[in-house]
């Protein structure tokens, strides 16, 4: 009730006062007074009520906070136990492939001695097995062009990838210490899907809400490194294009940083090794040069056949003139170090915009690499290469033994020509026969045959792994 309402009544009271003959002034006065009292009481009642409501709100909030803490605690417990309990999905085709390599192939390799580079062949097979296993575990990366986002700590790798996300509900954690940053595969999806992978290869699905919590204090509050039980994450989320790209958010690599271990460097290198394309981010907010450790890293990687693109990130924090100078400096130093690159982009991940570029623009570059990769063909080709290595080595030995056989034959003929018949000389005859046996290539021919069978079995088994994906 507002003042004017009460005052509205005053003229009416005056009217009443006029009807009443005696003591009307007093009556009207006391009525007005009690009305005013009522108004005061009412006001204080309202304030009290408001205070009460405020108190109730505070209480409610307290309860909710406690609930949240409880949820967090529950989440923590659930999260850890689900990671520890998750088992890798069973894939029979993959098991069979592994079995063939571990038993049949190893048995063949042990019986065979022609191939001098056997260690290399085994390494290739191991690598193929790992790639197949990765495809089984992360089907979303199958046939995707792997684009690794590398760079030093806090260069803005995660924020850079975030700049492509269309759904604000999902965000890679930023400002995360590389020791706790979890390498993450990011691909286009119609809907958000977040999966964590346990060290055993078990899969745990996470809600966007829980994932958000993972970003910050939650990780700290765990009291251990979550990365130890969840070494890899995979995210699918809507992005404008790039349906053929799989970005990898690497933990960052910065050997000079405290708390950085060799294994972090190894992790980054491992991921970069399997990527076809490398986006190297450098935060130009600090001094606007390429750190020496970055140059060393890029130099080592250029030796492989990879496309490198340089992102001069956080360009929003620099003036136009600065940006020009910084890009000039980048070009100069990259040339000096003989590092081949497709372009340099002065980019702002926060504003999602490119301010300037050299070579080709970042978006053109990404469009260029947005092509499917024929993984099946490349894996089968690698397997065939291994078998060819053996085939070539065994055939060389066969040729060599044939050569020796023909020398033995000539030796016999030489003896004959000089009038000595070896057939008459038991000892000499036996020696030649022994040599014939020693350099017999029947055994090699048999190996060649088992090589063919083994190759067909292993190729077929690999094909079945791909069929199991469909
Ligand atoms: N102003 C600005 N800040 C950025 C940009 N990119 C990243 N950052 C910030 O730099 C910090 C480190 O970024 P983050 O993505 O976590 O770096 P990472 O360690 O390389 O993954 C975060 O606070 C980001 O918000 C950018 O383009 N502009
Ligand atoms: Mg990061």
Please describe what this structure looks like:
The chain is α/β, with parallel strands linked by helices and 470 residues long. The chain has three domains: 68 residues; 147 residues, no CATH class; 230 residues, Rossmann fold, CATH 3.40.50.300. Strand 7, helix 10 and strand 8 form a beta-alpha-beta unit. It has 15 helices and ten strands. Helix 1 runs antiparallel to helix 2, helix 3 packs antiparallel against helix 4 and helix 13 packs antiparallel against helix 15. The chain has a ten-stranded mixed beta sheet, with helices on both faces. Bound molecules: guanosine-5'-diphosphate and magnesium ion (MG). The site of magnesium ion has 5 residues, from helix 5.
């Amino acid at each position: 009730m507002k003042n004017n309402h009460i005052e509205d009544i005053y003229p009416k009271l005056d009217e009443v006062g006029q009807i009443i003959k005696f003591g009307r002034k007093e009556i009207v006065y006391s009525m007005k007074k009690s009305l005013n009292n009522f108004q005061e009481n009412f006001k204080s009642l309202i304030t009290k009520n408001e205070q009460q409501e405020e108190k109730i709100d505070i209480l409610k909030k307290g309860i909710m906070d406690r609930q949240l803490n409880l949820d967090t605690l529950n989440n923590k417990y659930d999260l850890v136990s689900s990671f520890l309990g998750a088992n890798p999905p069973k894939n029979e085709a993959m098991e069979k492939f592994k079995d063939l390599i571990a038993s049949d192939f190893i048995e063949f390799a042990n019986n065979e001695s022609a191939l001098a580079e056997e260690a290399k062949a085994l390494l290739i097979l191991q690598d193929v097995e790992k790639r197949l296993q990765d495809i089984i575990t992360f089907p979303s990366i199958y046939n995707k062009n792997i684009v690794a986002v590398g760079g030093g700590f806090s260069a803005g790798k995660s924020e850079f990838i975030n700049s492509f996300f269309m759904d604000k509900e999902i965000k890679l954690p930023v400002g995360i210490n590389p020791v706790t940053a979890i390498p993450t595969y990011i691909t286009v999806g119609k809907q958000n899907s977040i999966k964590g992978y346990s060290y055993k290869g078990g899969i745990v699905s996470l809600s966007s809400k829980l994932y958000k919590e993972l970003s910050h204090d939650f990780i700290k509050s765990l009291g251990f490194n979550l990365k130890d039980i969840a070494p890899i994450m995979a995210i699918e989320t809507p992005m404008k294009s790039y349906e053929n790209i799989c970005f990898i958010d690497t933990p960052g690599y910065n050997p000079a940083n405290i708390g950085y271990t060799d294994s972090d460097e190894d992790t980054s290198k491992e991921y970069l090794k399997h990527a076809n394309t490398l986006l190297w981010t450098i935060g130009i907010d600090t001094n606007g040069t390429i750190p020496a450790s970055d140059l060393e890293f890029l130099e080592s990687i250029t030796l492989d056949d990879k496309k490198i693109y340089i992102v001069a990130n956080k360009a929003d924090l620099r003036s136009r003139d600065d940006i020009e100078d910084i890009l000039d400096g980048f070009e100069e130093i990259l040339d000096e170090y003989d590092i081949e690159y497709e372009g340099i982009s002065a980019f702002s991940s926060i504003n999602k915009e490119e301010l300037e570029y050299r070579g080709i623009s970042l978006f053109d570059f990404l469009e260029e690499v947005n092509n499917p990769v024929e993984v099946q063909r490349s894996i089968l080709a690698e397997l065939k290469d291994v078998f060819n290595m053996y085939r070539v080595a065994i055939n060389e030995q066969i040729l060599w033994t044939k050569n020796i056989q023909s020398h033995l034959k000539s030796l016999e003929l030489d003896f004959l020509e000089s009038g000595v018949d070896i057939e008459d000389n038991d000892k000499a005859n036996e020696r030649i026969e022994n040599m014939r046996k020693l350099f017999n290539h029947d055994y090699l021919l048999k190996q060649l045959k088992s090589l063919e069978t083994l190759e067909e079995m292993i190729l077929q088994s690999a094909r079945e792994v791909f069929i199991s994906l469909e």
